[in-house]
Structures are given as structure tokens and as C-alpha cells.
């Protein structure tokens, strides 16, 4: 019963993390224009994402342009594109493994094999969390380094956008849920080998054990 509850908890966290990875991948708010000057009234705000760049006017109008060339992107954006997509795909694969090996399903009959499949799903979710965590930390480090670099013009300085915070939350859910799935294995399983009993020793008419038992 406890292992089944852990499976439901881990699966719920991992599914939520995978959905948040997909949301973070599609949002354009990975890099946001920084407000450095004293004047808080600005004409427009720049959002830079994995797939497009958006300019939000002070009037509320927003114009977005899809990136024309992948090779023209910076190295951190190219890496983030690839790893976030791989992370989302691994999340779907981990979901199929976990559902196939869950105790509430009958896809696999043997209990020991079901537990191993669930553990494999947990490992896949942990790898998925690491894959989305690497580009987030790399991009955040580049944003902070450029922000404090005096050689970078103020117009090109960026701040950490909302998509990075969503991605960090997703990575935390994936790592936590995957760890729970790996620890949800029951302590014991029913043995698949037949139980063999030793034959009883026969007693002769005079009350002694048959000598053939000792040969």
C-alpha cells in the first residue's frame, strides 16, 4: 500500500514537471530587457525565447518574430533548445514506463519485473530533470555575467525571465518525483520459484529409521 502511494506521488510530481518543461520551452521570456536607468517609463520591453523574440510596447501591443536561423542563435540558446526538447521527450517515455509498471495496471504480470520497470521510469525522469537543469543554469550564468560586464551596453543587458524560474521548478519536480519512483519498490516480492520440501524419513516396524535414508 505504501509503495503504491509513493508511485502515485512520484508520478504526479513527474507529470507536473514534464508539463512545466513544455511550458517553459514554449514561453519567450527566457531573457528579459533590464531596467537600469532611473526612468521606469520605457517605450518597450524585449523578451527573448528559444523560438522567438517579442517586443512589448508600453501601449500593450506585442510583436513577435520567430528566429529565422538556428545557426544564428547564441550557443546557450541552441543548447537550451536541444536539451529542453530531449527532456520533454524523456518525460513522455518515463510516463509510459511508469504506467506500464504501476501496481494499478496489468500490463506486466510479474511483480518483480513491474518494480524494475517503475525504477527505470524514475531513472528516466531524473535524467530528464538534469537535461533541463543544465541549460537553465548555463543561461542564467551568461545573463548574470553580461549584466555585470561593463563592456556590454546597457541596451543589451538582460535579466532572468519567468521561463527560467518555471524551468527550475520543473527540474525540481522531476528530480524529486524520479527519486520517489526509484524508492517506491516494495521490500519483498513473491518468489517465482517452486518451494521444494525434503522427503520425510520413513520408520521401520521395529521403530528404527530406514537405513536407506542414510545411503
Question: Would you write up a description of this structure?
Answer:
This protein is α+β, with helices and mostly antiparallel strands. 51% of the residues lie in helices and 10% in strands. It has 4 helices and 5 strands; from the N terminus they run αββββααβα. Strands 4-3-2-1-5 form a 5-stranded antiparallel sheet.
Low-confidence stretches: 189-195
What is the count of helical runs? 4
- H/E order of the elements? HEEEEHHEH
Average pLDDT, all residues:
81
Helix content: 40-55%
Assign an overall shape.
elongated
Based on helices, strands and strand pairing, what is the structural class?
A: alpha+beta
Number of strands: 5
| Strand residues, percent | 5-15%
Side-by-side strand order of the widest sheet: 4-3-2-1-5
Task: Please give the alpha-carbon distance between the first and last residues.
Answer: 50 Å
Cα-atom radius of gyration: 29 Å
Largest sheet: 5 strands, antiparallel
Q: Which terms would index this structure?
A:
single chain; 215 residues; alpha+beta; five-stranded antiparallel beta sheet; elongated
Topology:
Elements: H1 2-26, E1 31-33, E2 44-48, E3 52-57, E4 62-66, H2 75-101, H3 111-147, E5 158-160, H4 162-182
Antiparallel strand pairs: 1-2, 1-5, 2-3, 3-4
Helix pairs in contact: 1-2, 1-3, 1-4, 2-3, 3-4
Amino acid at each position: 500500500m505504501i509503495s503504491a502511494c509513493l508511485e502515485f506521488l512520484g508520478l504526479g510530481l513527474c507529470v507536473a514537471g514534464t508539463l512545466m518543461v513544455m511550458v517553459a520551452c514554449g514561453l519567450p521570456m527566457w531573457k528579459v530587457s533590464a531596467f537600469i536607468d532611473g526612468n521606469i517609463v520605457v517605450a518597450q520591453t524585449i523578451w527573448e525565447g528559444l523560438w522567438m523574440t517579442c517586443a512589448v510596447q508600453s501601449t500593450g501591443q506585442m510583436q513577435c518574430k520567430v528566429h529565422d536561423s538556428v545557426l544564428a542563435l547564441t550557443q546557450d540558446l541552441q543548447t537550451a533548445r536541444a536539451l529542453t526538447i530531449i527532456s520533454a521527450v524523456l518525460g513522455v517515455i518515463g510516463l509510459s514506463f511508469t504506467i506500464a509498471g504501476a501496481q494499478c495496471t496489468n500490463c506486466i504480470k510479474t511483480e518483480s519485473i513491474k518494480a524494475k520497470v517503475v525504477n527505470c521510469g524514475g531513472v528516466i525522469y531524473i535524467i530528464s530533470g538534469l537535461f533541463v537543469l543544465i541549460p537553465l543554469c548555463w543561461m542564467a550564468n551568461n545573463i548574470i555575467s553580461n549584466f555585470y560586464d561593463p563592456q556590454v551596453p546597457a541596451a543589451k543587458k538582460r535579466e532572468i525571465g519567468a521561463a527560467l524560474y518555471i524551468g527550475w521548478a520543473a527540474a525540481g519536480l522531476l528530480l524529486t518525483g524520479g527519486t520517489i519512483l526509484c524508492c517506491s519498490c516494495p521490500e519483498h516480492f513473491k518468489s517465482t520459484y517452486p518451494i521444494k520440501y525434503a522427503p520425510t524419513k520413513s520408520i521401520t516396524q521395529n521403530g528404527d529409521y530406514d537405513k536407506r535414508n542414510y545411503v
